[in-house]
Automatic annotation (TrEMBL):
Pfam families: rve. Residues 6-112 form the Integrase catalytic domain. PANTHER family: PROTEIN CBG26694 (PTHR37984), PROTEIN NYNRIN-LIKE (PTHR37984:SF5). SUPFAM superfamilies: Ribonuclease H-like. One of its GO terms (biological process) is DNA integration. GO terms for cellular component: nucleus. This is Integrase catalytic domain-containing protein. InterPro entries: Integrase_cat-core (IPR001584), Retrovirus_Pol_polyprotein (IPR050951), RNaseH-like_sf (IPR012337), RNaseH_sf (IPR036397). It comes from the Eukaryota. The lineage of its organism: Eukaryota, Fungi, Dikarya, Basidiomycota, Pucciniomycotina. Coiled coil: none annotated. GO terms for molecular function: RNA binding. Keywords: RNA-binding.
Amino acid sequence: MIHIRQPKSPWEVVHMDWVTALPPSGNKSYNACLVIVDRYSKTPIFLPFHKDDTAMNTALLLWSRVISHTGLLKNIISDRDPKFTSALCTNLYRCFGTNYHSLQHITLKQMG
């Protein structure tokens, strides 16, 4: 069982998940959305995606639209989506010093 302390400042800990099966939207016909919520401030970020986007696209968008503005994330909490658990993302987490936690290993009580 993993224990994650309540963060002391914004963007230390985020929750990430996908909303999929959306109707196509925008000039690029996005049909999915990556939802990122800061655990400290409860501030959400919604990033448009295509449900077929790769782990590389996910990592690039996460870097350009989130990390470049908030700084490196200490902890990411999410389900075991292959886009978050791919070798690419796992190596990026290691390089950035970010801990990835699967919801499978965290109880709702710990999520606060």
